[in-house]
Design brief:
Largest sheet: 2 strands, antiparallel
Shape: flat
Mean pLDDT: 88
Bound molecules: heme C
Distance between the termini: 44 Å
Order of helices and strands: HHHHHEEHHHHHHEEHHHHHHHHH
Structural class: mainly alpha
Length: 463
């Protein structure tokens, strides 16, 4: 809060002055906006007003969100974000602009925001939330995953259908349900390539989508996954719920981990007394007493500036099969370690933080050791042709997946974010059980030189 008292003063004077003018303006436009007192810094054009007026009647829900937003107060309207050039691959016309030379699109990517927020967009685009997020769902190089989606989750294995996995796009001529799992699941968190019909509207349920959505004009990213539309508020994005929409569940239970941590306990018992409305970059201890997800991963705190690259403050890669110190497209782990420590230093002493960082390193080492053991067993089995071709019918390979993707991630992420129950009961405890079961299967196969007939893993339920 401290850095912006000057700015707030100026804003208040402006609000008073412009508020008066706006009241008169709103009345003359018969928009019933008096209560909200829109601040018009540059005025709406006639075209912009027509969208507002008609949509106020036809889509009052969207209107109310927008009206409460800071951007509406600064004169940014539907027109600024939804009007596109006629030549845009996304250009269409709603019933209100038919017959005019105005073209609109319901799709709005980070490129639109970059006109006015270039720095946030630049940081976002180099983070794991942009192209890497949608690559996980549609990049042909990740064929294994597409197999999971189309062949297995899409039931193609029952239809005995071979699908073309070379493009990442919706396969042609296949039953629509082959993409049902991707559309309702993966894509709503990760985003995928938006496919377009002849009328420039999205098809194949590829829109709306998650954070890394790829738009037909080549742009990437949906900013509103955290800045809920149409309020686009900074205070909403500072709360852990903004992240919990995607960061949950058995494979990355970050919101559960947070709520279990001491930080989350503080949020749960006092969070409704905290202040989330400080201006951008000026949200500091005092506004809150314990950090939320945003505090540690994004917000400015102390002498650290806000970043829209969630990778910046990370040391380890805690999501992939082997945990390594981040480099390349995943960030810079050594720098990340230093930045994250600077977050903690606002509220904790070095002794306290050293313990936390060390116990994370130790859990990473413990997990990596078990993973290496599993890799070795698998290599032996492969050499002796003791693996089934279909990994999802092979108990050993199924367990190996859970070791990494569920139990191992929970242990690593629980330790990273101070949640003892996730570190232990959902994490290391289940890791060792899975590992020992894998050893039993391994020993059976080696001793008998054959694969047991039924998968010993009946479902993912225990993990
Ligand atoms: C600051 C930019 C911005 C402003 C201003 C804005 N929108 Fe949006 N709008 C978005 C974004 C971002 C999305 C999500 C698009 C996506 O996921 O590709 C969206 C989505 C939509 C959608 C499609 C989703 C749905 O629920 O059907 C409609 C319709 C829409 N906006 C109407 C409006 C109207 C009407 C206004 C003016 C009152 C408005 N928008 C103002 C950015 C904006
Ligand atoms: C006279 C009323 C009217 C006016 C003026 C109007 N709209 Fe619409 N608009 C609608 C209605 C009704 C719908 C919902 C039906 C549809 O999708 O065509 C709609 C739909 C939309 C959608 C969603 C389209 C989709 O495919 O889901 C967007 C975005 C939109 N309008 C933006 C605008 C913008 C921007 C303007 C101003 C340039 C504008 N509208 C002017 C009535 C209007
Ligand atoms: C035409 C310029 C323009 C465009 C396009 C634009 N913005 Fe803004 N935005 C602004 C201005 C101006 C403000 C500052 C308002 C203020 O300080 O009161 C702002 C403020 C914000 C804020 C801070 C709100 C708060 O609570 O303090 C967020 C978040 C934001 N914009 C997100 C977006 C997103 C997301 C998009 C794209 C979907 C977008 N903006 C597109 C001009 C724009
Ligand atoms: C719409 C869903 C969604 C929301 C909301 C969301 N994330 Fe993510 N996040 C993802 C996905 C998907 C990935 C995995 C990206 C990939 O495949 O590399 C991810 C990855 C991350 C990563 C790791 C990045 C990397 O490259 O390793 C961090 C850290 C992160 N998110 C933090 C946050 C925080 C903090 C918030 C809230 C302020 C948040 N996320 C909100 C979907 C989301
Ligand atoms: C509830 C939201 C959600 C759903 C549904 C979801 N994911 Fe993710 N996914 C995430 C988040 C969040 C991460 C980041 C996890 C982390 O940091 O540990 C992630 C990580 C990943 C990763 C590792 C990062 C990378 O890019 O290599 C892959 C691959 C992946 N998801 C693929 C998928 C696929 C394929 C599906 C559907 C079959 C799917 N996800 C469904 C949210 C989701
Ligand atoms: C993962 C969640 C998340 C996503 C995605 C996200 N933001 Fe933010 N954004 C935040 C948080 C949290 C803050 C508040 C930082 C603080 O505490 O001051 C913020 C602040 C802002 C602000 C206020 C100025 C500033 O930089 O602090 C703007 C403008 C903004 N975001 C625009 C965008 C745009 C444009 C995009 C899309 C490229 C975007 N945001 C995507 C979480 C997100
Ligand atoms: C006290 C600070 C703090 C809070 C609060 C916090 N995190 Fe973290 N987070 C960390 C640290 C530290 C790591 C591990 C960083 C490293 O590698 O050194 C981490 C790791 C992660 C990762 C793993 C990235 C990977 O490698 O797979 C994700 C995703 C993530 N956090 C999301 C969230 C979400 C979502 C929330 C809120 C629900 C949250 N975090 C709350 C500090 C925090
Ligand atoms: C905004 C201040 C703030 C920040 C930043 C912060 N913490 Fe905390 N932390 C707290 C508070 C408050 C508690 C709860 C103390 C209590 O209620 O017992 C706490 C408790 C903890 C605990 C529980 C153990 C104990 O002392 O009872 C751990 C572990 C922890 N923090 C680690 C971290 C790490 C690691 C970071 C940086 C990645 C961090 N914290 C950042 C305020 C903060």
């Amino acid at each position: 809060m401290r850095r912006s008292s000057g700015k707030i003063g100026i804003v208040c004077v402006t609000l008073l002055l412009v508020g008066l003018v706006t009241g008169v303006w709103a009345q003359s436009q018969n928009l019933n906006l008096a209560a909200k007192e829109l601040v018009i810094k540059r005025g709406f054009t006639k075209e912009a007003l027509s969208c507002i007026e008609c949509h106020g009647k036809k889509m009052p829900g969207i209107m109310e969100g927008w009206r409460a937003s800071r951007m509406s107060h600064a004169g940014i309207s539907c027109y600024d974000c939804h009007v596109v050039k006629k030549s845009s691959p996304m250009a269409s016309q709603c019933e209100g602009v038919k017959g005019t030379d105005i073209y609109i699109s319901p799709m709005v990517s980070s490129k639109t925001c970059s006109r006015c927020h270039p720095q946030e967009v630049e940081q976002f685009l180099r983070s794991g939330h942009a192209s890497l997020a949608s690559a996980a769902v549609m990049d042909p190089k990740k064929v294994g995953l597409q197999k999971l989606m189309y062949q297995y989750e899409g039931s193609a294995f029952m239809d005995n259908d071979t699908l073309d996995l070379s493009t990442g796009l919706t396969p042609k001529g296949k039953a629509p349900y082959v993409r049902a799992s991707r559309a309702g699941g993966c894509q709503m968190c990760h985003g995928t390539q938006v496919e377009m019909g002849p009328d420039n509207k999205p098809i194949n349920e590829t829109w709306p989508g998650g954070v890394g959505t790829r738009y037909p004009d080549g742009s990437i990213g949906t900013c509103t996954v955290c800045h809920t539309r149409h309020r686009f508020s900074v205070s909403d994005a500072r709360k852990p719920e903004a992240c919990g929409a995607c960061h949950l569940g058995p494979d990355h239970p970050n919101i559960e981990i947070y709520m279990e941590s001491k930080h989350g306990q503080n949020y749960l018992v006092q969070g409704d007394e905290w202040n989330y409305d400080s201006p951008p970059g000026a949200w500091e201890p005092g506004d809150y007493l314990a950090p939320t997800c945003a505090t540690c991963h994004m917000s400015g705190i102390g002498d650290l500036a806000t970043t829209h690259s969630v990778n910046d403050r990370l040391k380890w890669d805690l999501m992939h099969k082997k945990s390594v110190i981040r480099s390349g497209e995943r960030g810079n782990g050594e720098k990340g370690e230093k930045l994250m420590r600077r977050v903690c230093a606002n509220c904790h002493g070095k002794t306290h933080t050293d313990v936390q960082r060390k116990s994370l390193d130790n859990i990473v080492e413990l997990y990596n050791k078990q993973w290496a053991g599993a890799v070795k067993m698998k290599a032996d089995l492969k050499k002796k042709s003791l693996l089934k071709k279909d990994p999802w019918k092979d108990g050993f390979q199924e367990l190996m997946y859970y070791l990494w993707h569920h139990t191992g991630r929970r242990a690593r992420q629980g330790a990273a974010m101070n949640a003892p129950d996730y570190t232990h009961w959902h994490g290391t405890f289940q890791m060792f059980q899975v590992y020992k079961d894998m050893e039993d299967i391994y020993n059976y196969r080696i001793k008998n030189n054959k694969i047991e007939e039924l998968s010993t893993v009946m479902s993912s339920a225990p993990y």
